[in-house]
């Protein structure tokens, strides 16, 4: 008779099923269904960690563009002026200033325009 390490395989399955906590229906307690759901979830998580970065950059660009247009500049012209005048400030900070600190953003725009 073949020996099977049931303790280890059961522990492995139990460990995986813990990841399925909160899933609906058979996805939370049927091994094969849960395993597929968990692995698919991990694929989405991996992919979306990259997508999140893309989406935030796009959001920052929209906010900077909206802020720059108040001073008759497009986003691309504004960024070009910043680069030309050696003003190194990242998009995340620029977007935050455009949203929450108009005076500071205006100062940066005026510095870039000179």
- Name of the level-1 CATH class: Mainly Alpha
Shape: rod-shaped
Question: Residue-averaged pLDDT, rounded?
Answer: 94
Count of domain modules: 1
CATH architecture: Orthogonal Bundle
Structural class: mainly alpha
Present the secondary structure layout:
Elements: H1 6-19, H2 31-69, H3 75-84, H4 91-100, H5 102-113
Walk me through what this model shows.
This protein is mainly alpha-helical. The protein has a single domain (7-113), classed as Ribosomal protein L20, C-terminal domain (c-terminal domain of poly(a) binding protein). 75% of the residues lie in helices and 0% in strands. It contains 5 helices and no strands. It is rod-shaped. The mean pLDDT is 94.
Q: Which key features would you list for this structure?
A:
114 residues, mainly alpha, c-terminal domain of poly(a) binding protein
Task: Summarize this entry quickly.
By secondary structure, the chain is mainly α.
């Amino acid at each position: 008779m073949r020996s099977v390490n049931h303790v280890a395989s059961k522990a492995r399955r139990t460990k995986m099923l813990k990841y399925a906590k909160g899933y609906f229906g058979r996805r939370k307690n049927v091994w094969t269904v849960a395993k597929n759901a968990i692995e698919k979830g991990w694929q989405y998580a991996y992919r979306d960690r990259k997508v999140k970065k893309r989406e935030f950059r796009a959001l920052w660009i929209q906010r900077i563009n909206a802020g720059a247009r108040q001073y008759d500049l497009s986003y691309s012209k504004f960024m070009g002026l910043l680069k030309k005048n050696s003003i190194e400030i990242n998009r995340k900070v620029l977007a935050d200033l455009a949203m929450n600190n108009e005076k500071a953003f205006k100062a940066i725009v005026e510095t870039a325009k000179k």
